[in-house]
Here is the input.
Amino acid sequence: MTQTHEAGTWLRREGAALRRPLRRAAALSALQALALVAQAWLLAWILNAALFAHATLRTCAPALLALLLLAPLRLAAQLGARRVAHAAALGWSAAIRTRLLERTRALGPLGLRAAASGELITRLVDGVDALLPYAARYLPQTLTAALVPLLLAAAVLPADWISGLILLFTAPLIPLFMGLVGSAAERASRRRYAELSRLGAAFIDALSGLTTLRELGAAEGVAAQLADDGEGYRRATMQVLRVAFLSALVLEFFATVSIAVVAVLIGFRLLWHELAFRDGLFVLLLAPEFYAPLRALGALRHARMDALAAAAPLAALEQAPLRSPPLAGGAAPAPDAAPRVSLVDLRYAPDGRGPVLDGLDLELPAGRVTVLVGATGAGKSSLLNLLLGFAAPQHGHVRIDGAELTSLDLDAWRARIAWVPQQAHVFAGTLADNLRLARPQAERADLDAVAIDVGLAAALTRLPRGWDTVLGEHGEGLSGGELQRLALARALLRRDARVLLLDEPTAHLDADSARRIGQVLRAAACGRTVLWVAHRLDAALAADRVAVLQDGRVAECAPPADLLRAGGAFAALHAAECAS
Here is the structure.
């Protein structure tokens, strides 16, 4: 219940931006209602004059002409109201999506790491789309349902006060029963949206791990589970539709009964000569139109339910705390040459926990390969996040050629970085297209050269169409080692990248391939600053310098041969790895 209240509060707050266009739409709806009243009065007058006053066509011609002219006026007002509301809703939903995208950007990879990618996509796409019918149709209809019946009742009361009182008395019954029946539909709609979010997350996760699932022989089981989840979503959707149809039936029943009561009373009073034919016909023509906005509002109630169900996760995303806020950059340009990176007295405690980095000092010289080693949880990935600007340290300095990282344009700084994560992302497309993400204008000769450097040439001979082989989503068709080589090839193809940040680039490679990659990276370090995070210490032997991370600080930093001779922390780690 609290979640629904928060979602309703968020919707009301966001809907405040629509007040002005909704007022214009309501004014057009009121104009349409006034034209309707005029048409009903003219039609009643014409029929009364023709049937009882024996009026000629010449006498009724002005009224007939006015009746015909009011029809396009009603149509124009109706279309204008819908156009105004729809245009406002489109801009409103686009603004919400833009703001939520900015929020995800502000949260950064660290703030979103607990969120399933499929669920996040569902929020930003389907969730925001679910708000559009609410803003374009439901909100304008609420104003129409509040304004138009009052205008029609004001027109009916002078003609027949008894019918006017019946209309005013029965009108509240429709929203009352709409609310009673709609509460069940609201709960069903929330369950349906939860099923949709869960199904989206499961589907994206299954796609990302499809290669592994096939290797383990579990793809059929996951497909069956997705089919069961899809069936659950279908049942939840049908439950919403059943309740919606029940709500529509209740509204139609009460509206029909109310119109019938008005019609029966008018019929008897016409029979008893207590009411003029013109006035009775005028009231009968307006009675269905009196309930029409209320019935339309009931039919659109599902739009509000869907919006409430979608608003809860959207509000949660917007209000998600910035536990590890990204770095706030400045406007200074990033260096064009390989920079000297200095980390001075860094202290970083993510998510309010104890410090992962505490008093860290490290120098990354230009044109050199620095390998960072340490136990799991020592803070190696945290250091990469600080260099990428995904997080801000609580204390200390990150300096690029002596300038604070906070003073640089972060987009320009990241454009100078080639980052190789532990799990490379591959898009559906050809192998060449995936590699050209690093440099779209790269020639085929450039691709061949970098493929030879990273050992991807063997995969080219195995693939049926070489560079033109279409890879499946998330790298179907390539092994884990080949995906890692592709990520390395992307980094090396970036000629404008002056900093290489490599997170376990040889994790899926054999020892000989890892040594070759180390030699390639040492050659590529000319004109670049390279930081290589490694768990396998045999890779560190090819580096210019090795920094050992312990207790949040750099315990030792020197060429690997010097560290092995010194017999310190790196020597102990290397001996333990060789023994295992």
Summary: The chain has three domains: 20-318, 324-416+498-580, 427-496. The two ends are 56 Å apart (CA to CA).
